[in-house]
TrEMBL record:
Assigned keywords, A-Z: Hydrolase, Metal-binding, Zinc
One Pfam family hit: AstE_AspA_cat
InterPro entries: AstE_AspA_cat (IPR055438)
Residue ranges constituting the Succinylglutamate desuccinylase/Aspartoacylase catalytic domain according to the UniProt record: 21-93
Protein name (record): Succinylglutamate desuccinylase/Aspartoacylase catalytic domain-containing protein
Cofactors (names): Zn(2+)
Organismal lineage: Bacteria, Candidatus Collieribacteriota
Top-level lineage group: Bacteria
Organism per entry: Candidatus Collierbacteria bacterium RIFCSPHIGHO2_02_FULL_49_10
Single GO molecular function: metal ion binding
Length: 225
């Protein structure tokens, strides 16, 4: 992997690239209160680097939010509701510039749900994993770890969410023009930066060791098959 630093104003975002023709974009650290998964993803990327396709990997999408251990960045923004073309926030713009001119097959952006007793769930935007053996094996092995799978709604109180999951899975197709919203995946599909996306939500209450194992399994069963 090659290390790169994107500097824009007072924002510095460290990221890594593998190869000259990236097809995969990996994100973590979008929300500062979901910092546990950052190390989990780093360990998996380092472990499976040789087996992964060419990629761009951004370990900490919002450095200021992670520094504060907060959902909001230094400008008071939830970065994953702020990816619009006219947003002047330097973290938004830096992340947009990292992928400027790219056409990537897949975005995988790792998050944590920090609520008590939360379960694993996956937003599948356009890939269609539900009936594939890779998803079934992942789902079964996560369950064998003692990690629950969400059946029900993600967050009925969030107007941007309120999606329904079955055994940890929710699918929606990607409209030709992308879809509205301020999440990075919404911006990236609207602007043809990525074609499809996976958004795994790791239960925040898990021990760090178990988070590491869930993320490692996701790489094994989903990203390397």
């Amino acid at each position: 992997m090659q290390q790169v630093v994107k500097t824009l104003g007072r924002t510095q975002i460290l990221y890594y690239t593998k190869g000259d023709s990236p097809t995969l974009l990996i994100h973590s650290g979008t929300h500062g209160d979901e910092y546990g998964v950052i190390d989990s993803v780093r360990l998996a990327v380092e472990k499976y680097e040789a087996q992964l396709p060419d990629f761009i990997y951004v370990p900490i999408v919002s450095p200021s939010a992670v520094a504060k251990r907060s959902r909001l960045n230094w400008g008071g923004l939830d970065l994953n509701r702020s990816f619009f073309g006219d947003n002047a926030d330097s973290e938004v713009q830096a992340n947009q510039e990292i992928v400027k001119g790219k056409s990537l097959d897949l975005l995988v952006t790792f998050h944590e749900d920090s609520g008590p007793g939360t379960k694993f769930y996956l937003y599948d935007m356009g890939l269609g994993l539900e009936d594939k053996d890779s998803w079934k094996k992942f789902r079964d092995e996560v369950g064998a770890m003692g990690v629950g799978l969400l059946s029900g709604t993600d967050d009925p109180d969030d107007p941007y969410l309120n999606y329904t999951f079955t055994e940890g899975y929710h699918y929606w197709s990607v409209p030709v023009k992308g879809y509205e919203g301020g999440s990075f995946d919404a911006w990236a599909t609207r602007n043809k930066v990525v074609k499809k996306a996976l958004i795994p939500e790791i239960p925040g209450h898990l021990s760090q060791d178990k988070k590491n194992k869930v993320v490692d399994l996701f790489f094994q069963k989903i990203l390397l098959t």
